[in-house]
Structures are given as C-alpha cells and as structure tokens.
Amino acid sequence: MRLHRLDITAFGPFGGSQSVAFDELSAAGLFLLHGPTGAGKTSVLDAVCYALYGSVPGARQSGQGMTLRSDHAAVGTRTEVRLELTVAGRRLEITRQPPWERPKLRGRGTTVDKAQTWLREYDATAGTWKDLSRSHQEIGEEITQLLGMSREQFCQVVLLPQGDFARFLRADAEARGKLLGRLFDTRRFAEVEKRLAERRRTTEARVREGDAALLADAHRMQQAAGDAMVLPELAPGEPGLAEAVLSAAAVARSTAGELLAVADCRLTAAEAAQAAAERALADTRERDRLQRRYAEARERAGRLAERADAHRAAQERMERARKAEAVAPALGLRDAADAEHRRAVEAEARARALLPESLADAGAAGLAAAARRTAEELGSLESARRAEGRLAELAAERAGLDRQERADEDVAHEAETWLTDWETRRAGLQARVDAAQEAATRAEQLAVQRDPARRRLDAARERDRLAVEADAAERQALAAAQDAVEARAHWLGLKEQRLNGIAAELAAHLTDGEPCAVCGATEHPAPARRIIGHVGRDAEEQALAAHHEAEEWRADAERRLGSLREALAAATAEAGNTPAGQLAEEAEELERGYARARALASGLHAAQEELRRAEREREQRIAARQEAAVRAASRVAHRERLQREHASLEEELVQARGTADSVAARAAQLERRAALLTEAADAARVAEDTAQRLKDADARLADAAFRAGFDTPREAADALLDDTAHRDLQRRLDAWQAEEAAVRAVLAETDTAAAARQPPADVDRAEREAADAGRRLRDASSARDAAARRCAELGRLSAHATTAARRLAPLREEYDRVARLASLAAGTSADNDRRMRLESYVLAARLEQVAAAATARLRRMSSGRYTLVHSDDRTGRGRSGLGLHVVDAWTGRERDTATLSGGETFFVSLALALGLADVVTDEAGGVRLDTLFIDEGFGSLDDQTLDEVLDVLDSLREQDRSVGIVSHVADLRRRIHAQLEVVKGRSGSVLRQRGLG
Q1: What are the distances in angstroms from CA 771 to CA 95, 274, 777?
Q2: Closest to 97 measured CA to CA, from 79, 119, 77, 110
Q3: Which residue among 85, 333, 606, 960 has the highest number of C-beta atoms inside a 10 angstrom radius?
Q4: How far apart are CA 722 and CA 707, in angstroms?
C-alpha cells in the first residue's frame, strides 16, 4: 500500500482545504510530521484512517462522524476527505463526507445531510478516473479486502496512534494470533481445526447415538430376561460397551433356554392332570343329574295322588257341561226374546209419557186415529203460510221504497251543491292547462341549449385532466431520458473496463501447448490475471440490455407525451379557457331550469284530462238529478198499492193463527203433536208383538231341558260353561294325564333307578378339583409361552445388537482416529506437550520469521546489544507458540519484552513493526506495506540510539518504502529534511511541506 495524495476540507482542526503530496514526501524515504501540541498532527493520520475505513482510531470516533467537522469551518463548507493511494497494483481514489448539519435552504433551522462516499479507479490506458461505487458497505468491503486488515489492525501495523505504539509487542498470544492470522491468511489452518473439531463432534455424536441404541437394546433385553441379565455399568461412548452388552446378552439367552425346557415339562404334566379332572367332573355331574331326576319324579307322583279327588270332580263337571250344550240354543233364543220385550215396554212407556192425559190409556188403534186427525188440520194451514210470507215481502218492499227515497234525496242535494261551484272549478282547471302549455314551450327552448353546454363542460374537464397527465408524462419523459443517458454511460463504462481487462479474460482460456488466439504462441509464460472488479461478458450484456430497455422506455414516454399534448390541444379548442367550475355552474343552472320546465310541462296532459273529467261529471250530475225526480213521482203510486194488499192479508191471518203468535207457530204445534201420536202408536204395537215371542221361547226352552235330563231350565243354564272356563277345565284334565304318563316313564328308567341307589354325588368338590387343575394348566401354559417369547425376543434383540455392534465398530475406529487428530490440532492432546494449536504452530513459524527480520534492524538500533527471538514456551496454564523474548548480549540472558524500558520498548517495537512489514511483503498473497507512520516515542531515545534508529529507517528507501515520523521533538527537525509542518492559528490549522526537491 502506498499513499499518493490527501485532501482535507473542514476536518478536525483544519477549517479550510489542505493537501498533502505523499509522493513528494515519500521520495525522501523518511519525512517528519511535526507541529505544536494540539495543532493537528494526529488529525492528518486520522484523515487517512477515515478515508480508508470511514472512522478514526480509538476514542476519537464518536457521534457517527458529526464530531469530525472542524469548528473553524465556514457555515456553507462541507467536511470532506479525499485520499489517493495504490494498493494491490490498483490506483484508487476514496472520497468521504461525514454527516453534515447545515442551514435549511428554505425557512429557518438546520437539516442533516447523510454521509457520502465515492470510490474511483484510475485507468492508465485511458488516462481517466472511473467510478466504481457509491455504497458505504461495498466500498468498505472492497478496501478491507484489498488491505487485508481491519481498522484496528491497520492502526497497529501501519498507523500506530499515540499511546498504542507498543501494543503489538506487549499483546498476549491470542491478540498476536488474531493479527498475524489476518496478515498471513492462516484462516485455512483454523478452518482445519474447526473442521476436525466438528468432525470429532459429529462422529462422537454418532458413536454416542449408536451406543445409546445398543444400550436401549440391552435395556429391552433386560426387560425381556427379567433378573437373568445384568447390564454393564458403562455410559454411551465409553470403550468396551458393545462387548459387555453382547456378553450379557449371551448369558441371558442361555438362561432363558434352560427356563423354557423346564416350562415344557411342567406344561405336559398339567395337561394330563387337567384331562383326568375333567373326566371325573363329567361323571359326577351325570350321576347328580340322574339322582335329582329320580327324586323329582317321586315328588311329582306324590302330588298327583294328593289331587286325585279334584281330578274326578273335574271329569264329572266336564260331563254335565257337555249335556248342557244341547240346551244352549233354546236358552239363547229365550234370553234374546226377553231382552227385546223389555226394550219395547220401556219405549212404549216413554212415548205415552209425552201424550196428553186424555190419550194416556188409549190403545194402538186409538193413537193412530188421533195422529191422522192432527195431520189433516196441519194441511189446512198451508194457504195461511203463503199469506204470512207475502206480508213479510210487502214490508221489505216498503223498506226498499224508503231507502230509494233517501238515496234520491242525497243524489239531488249533492248534485245541486256540486253544480253551484262549477264555474270556479272550471276556471282553475283551465288556468292549469294554460300554465303547462307555456312550460312545455320553455322546456323545448332550454333543451336546445343543454347539449352544447354539456359538451363544452366535458371538454373542459378533459382539458384539465389531460393537462395534469401531460405534466406527469413530461416529468416521466425527462426521467426516462436521464435514465437512458445513465444506462448508456454505465454500459460504455463496463465495456471500457472489459476491454481493459480483456487480456485476462482471453488468458483464462489458454492451455499449455495450445496456440494463443491473439499471438499464436504455444507457450504462455506470464498470462494476464484477472483483477478484483473484473467485468465479464455477462455483465456487459446485462448493461447493454438495460441500456436498450431504458431507450425503449424513453421512446414510449415521449410518444405518450406527444399523444397527450395533441389531445390537450383538441380539448382546449372546444372548451376554450373558461374554468371548468364556471362551466359546471352554468350547465347546472341550465339543467335546473330545464328540469323545472319539464316538471310543469309534464302536468299538461293530466290537467287537460282532469278538465274533461270535470265536464263529464257535470253532465252526469245534471242527469242524475233529473232521474231522481222521476223516480220520486213513481214511488207514490207504488206505496198506495202496497198498503191495500197489506190490509187484506192481515185480516186472513188473524183467523188462521188462532191463539198462536203466528201461522208458523200454529203449524209447529200441530207437527209436534202428530209426531208424538205416531211414535206412541208404533211403540204400543211393538210391545204387543215382543210379548207373544217371549211366551213362545219359554215353551221351547222347557221342552229342551227335559230332554237333556235336567229338571228345570235353570239347572241346564247353571251347568253350561263359557269358552274360557271350558278351555281351562280341559287344559287341567290334559295336564293331569301328561304328568301321570311322564312320572311313570321316569320311574321306569333303568339308569335313573340305578343312580338313585348310589351315594349322593359331590359336584362342588369335583368342580373345585377341575378348576384347580385348569388353573395349574393355564399357569404352566402362560409360563411356557412367556419363556418362549423371552427366548425369541432375546434372540431377536441379540441379533439386532450384534448387527448394531458390527456396524458401530468402523465408526468407533473413525472416531478414535478423528479424536486423536482433533485433540492434536487443538492442542489438548497429551501428545502435544506444548498445547500448541495448528494455527498457532503456523503463526509461530511466521512470528519466528518476523523476529528474525526484526532482529536485523534491532541490532543496529541497539548497537548489537538486543536480539528478538520467538519463544514457544507455555505461559502459566495457557498455550504456547506466540511468545516473544529479547536476548541481552551484555548479560547473555533471555527475558520477556515486558521488562524493557520505555526507550527500549520503542525501538524494539519499531524493529518488530518493520520486520512484520518485511515478512508480510515477502509472503505470497500478503499485502505490501510501502508507507508506515510512527506516532511519538522518539523523545524517549538518547542521541546515539536516535541516530541508529533513524539510520535504520532511512535504509528503507532501498526497498522503495517510506516512513513518516509524527513527533514534536526539535532535534528531529535538524536530522530530517523532508517535513510536513502543521501550523495552528485562530482560524484553524494549515499544512506546509518543507525540504522537498
């Protein structure tokens, strides 16, 4: 890394713009940055650090960059730092502007502008600067990748701030390891450690998982074997677990086989005992059944003997019932005749009770004659009934005449009243017709004006809308044009970058022995390499596509803008410049007038129709009044005729009613009397007939009872049985006979009689013995099944465990091998006696090179007294590998760097930093540190040591390096000619370069 130029504006103590030409200062190899305390020497280094990383070292970074602004700067001047440098063969320019609180352009107060960052790269071929990025994140990542260091590491190695010069020298092994690992890119070794540790954890987890599964099988085998298996007292992952589990499983299988053989013998014996007990139980149950059967038959025979008399009485009762069945028809006929006679007598008594006393004792013939006389009198009242009906009709006609008279009077009065207001009503209706005709004429005139007004309003609204769209389209067209220009510039820039790096792109396809597509050579000793940020074909084609897309969008936007402008001109020509609001108000007023006229005109037809209806109603009312007068004259003659007919009918009805209120009442009395007489005559005749039939039935019943053997009909009736009693008696007789036959059959059985002669059977005892034998058999069978299942389960689980152990063996070997390697690389293995990690081992080798390179300068600075050596001894309980000691040639002893004095610490640290820069530069892929800054510490050196240190620093020019010393020591101004002086004043500090060229 080499610095070329630094431009500072309104940064730190510098109120204006200041520039530092590092190329001129670096030409001297050694230059001095000096000035009074507080002038801003360290601020120059802060500006370099801020340009690279966007922040300043140590505690000076605060407020998100707001405190970097100079208090001496003018209000309108923005803080800016621009650094031009070369790193990794690329010349870059970095510009950073921290956040800026500035006055508002409008109004009062302030506003904050965001931080800005630019990164450009110089194209030597074209002689121009090319923009790379304006993203804070992208620029930060790019610079960090190119430098290979973070801000803190950069401050330790290149830009050592005051007070922290000896940090690396006094840092512990872990801090040195982090810095050296970043500088020498030993992340691959740390990744190896990490991968080994991860692989160890993975294989260990797999081994533990396999052991856990094996132990789970062992637990299942223990559950299956019961007390016959003892588990090994080992945890998953411990050695020997698989062998212990398999040994325990073999013992459990052998024990289970022995138990199975014993269970088979017990099962055979239990089966034989159970069969004998079942046979004995069956014999005992059969003997008990026969004994109980014989005892029950004897008990049934005794019960039959006790009921013998009742059986004979039932037989006799059945015989008398069979004889009485011959008399049953005659008994039925006599009972029916008796019931019919009683009903006839009761009906006759009820009918006679309703007759007058004069007819209560009359016979059937007398009652029939009285009924005929009453019917003849009823027939003579038919003429009086018609006269009474006509009299009611006459009353109804007279009531109708009265109603017609009242209705005609109402019609005449209503017509007279209505005709009185006729002229006023007619004048009002005619006025409505005239007003509606005038409104219709006015509506036709307004309708002609509506359409033009509406079209003009629509055109005005379209004009306003198109004006807004045209403004938006114009802005879009401008934006599209700007995007098209930027897209074209971006495409041309990428194309130029690709052409600049086309050699590397062509070199990527070179193959040894194959001719080059450009020069034709078959040897390619130094093919071009792609640099960071190389642009390929895909990126260029994407940029070209984006450029074409932007051009199409720009053309579409311009075409749309032209169309909108044409439509806007047409709408303006039709609507004019009158505001749309005013046109809307005029159109609305015109619409309201038209609506009012239409509303009035819409009533013309209704008004005309109403006038015609009123005229027709006038004619109808005049006609109704005349018709009412004619009907009144005709009603007078009709009323007189009705009165004469009413008087004649009334005289006839007085004679026909007699004592009744009306002819209908008199007719009802006669009809009721005729009905009662007829009913009584019929009831008397029926009673006489039923009495004769009852007498005949008694004679037939007495004859039938005598022939059946009964003394009287009553005895025959008592001997009869109804169907239910007959069935019940027959069922008892049949049951007796069946029971007697069954008892005789049982008592005649040979085996039953033989069983009865034997001792009583003990079924309960036989069942208990059979149940005990069955329980013993089930227990033996369950024990045998359990033993068989145990053997099968142990065999299955043992086979599964054997397979699992066989699969686990290679995995355990792999785990042992990986664990040894991981422990060795991590420094935790017993074989690694220094507990040195793999990355520490590699870094120790690099630190040993750094110590050797530093010693070459340290001997010159210390006049051959001190030598810097690397130590891999352990410190306390920590790990070894990154220790640094100094060897004092005067005492011949080796001691820790922490025992050095302040001046000794300064030049030892300086020698170590220079040695580190040499090793990093020589390291393949390392970062070349061409510019170093040393901030303070020279005041602690005596004159001789100072001369030796300056000689060492001045010798760096031979390697094309430069060192900037930041100090206020006056003696250095005489010794170093190239100087950058910081001069402070009331308006801020300024920079002056002296002793150049």
Answers
A1: 106, 9, 10
A2: 79
A3: 85
A4: 22
Q: Quickly tell me which residue has 């011959």 as its tokens.
A: 326
Question: The tokens of 783 are what?
Answer: 């024990």
More confident residue, 581 or 535: 581
Nearest by Cα to 44 from 24, 19, 63, 69:
19
What is the spatial distance between Cα 961 and Cα 381, in angstroms, rounded to a whole number? Answer: 164
Reduce the DSSP state of residue 662 to 3 states and report it: coil
CA 271 to CA 266: how far, in whole Å?
Answer: 9
C-alpha 924/C-alpha 912 separation (Å) is 20
Alpha-carbon span 557 to 553, nearest angstrom:
6
**DSSP per residue over 891-912, as a string?**
TTEEEEGGGS-HHHHHHHHHHH
Structural element, H or E, at residue 83: strand 80-87
Question: Are the C-beta atoms of residues 379 and 722 closer than 8 Å to each other?
Answer: no
pLDDT in tens, 255-278: 777 777 887 888 888 888 888 888
Residues 730 and 257: their CA atoms lie apart, in Å, by 77
Distant-in-sequence, close-in-space partners of 321: CB < 8 Å, separation ≥ 6: 719, 720, 721, 726, 729
**Residue 348: both structure tokens together:** 């006759």
Structure-token pair, residue 459: 């055109």
Q: What is the pLDDT of residues 802-828, one digit of tens each?
A: 777 777 667 677 667 777 777 776 666
Going by their DSSP bridges, the two strands 110-113 and 100-103 should be labelled as antiparallel
Contacts 24+ apart (CB under 8 A), 309-318: 311/733, 311/736, 314/729, 314/732, 314/733, 315/733, 317/729, 318/729, 318/730, 318/733
Bridging pattern class, strands 883-888 and 90-97: unpaired
User: What are the tens digits of pLDDT across the range 129-160?
Assistant: 998 888 888 898 888 888 877 777 677 666 65
Tell me the whole-structure pTM to 2 decimals: 0.40
Distance between CA 799 and CA 802 in Å, rounded?
Answer: 5
- Cα gap 854→917, rounded to integer Å: 10
CA-CA distances (angstroms) from residue 774 to 525, 555, 569, 764, 778?
A: 101, 104, 115, 15, 6
CA 761, CA 918: separation in Å to the nearest integer?
121
> Hunting for tokens 């512990």 — which residue is that?
172
Q: Which of 803, 454, 415, 435 is nearest to 617 (CA)?
A: 415
734-786 pLDDT, tens per residue?
788 887 788 778 777 788 778 777 888 787 888 888 888 888 888 888 877 87
Cα distances (angstroms) measured from residue 216 to each of 220, 517, 655, 815: 6, 69, 132, 21
Complete DSSP assignment for 444-506: HHHHHHHHHHHHHHHHHHHHHHHHHHHHHHHHHHHHHHHHHHHHHHHHHHHHHHHHHTHHHHH
881: left (phi over 0), alpha (psi -120 to 50) or beta: left
**Helix/strand/coil (H, E, C) string of 267-312?**
HHHHHHHHHHHHHHHHHHHHHHHHHHHHHHHHHHHHHHHHCHHHHH
Q: Which of 430, 816, 413 is nearest to 610 (CA)?
A: 430
For residue 339, give both structure tokens. 């019931």
Distance of CA 460 to the CA centre of its chain: 52
Closest CA to 956 of 934, 932, 938, 937: 932
Look at residues 677, 679, 669 and name the one whose alpha carbon lies nearest to residue 381.
669
pLDDT of residue 161: 45
DSSP for 561-588 reads HHHHHHHHHHHHHHHTTS-HHHHHHHHH
- Please, is 946 exposed, middle or buried when counting C-beta atoms within 10 Å of its C-beta (0-12, 13-18, 19+)? buried
Residue 371 DSSP SS3 = helix
Going from the C-alpha of 254 to that of each of 230, 451, 507, 791, the distances in angstroms are 14, 114, 76, 9
- Do 840 and 827 form a contact (C-beta atoms < 8 A)? yes
Pairing of strands 30-34, 100-103: unpaired
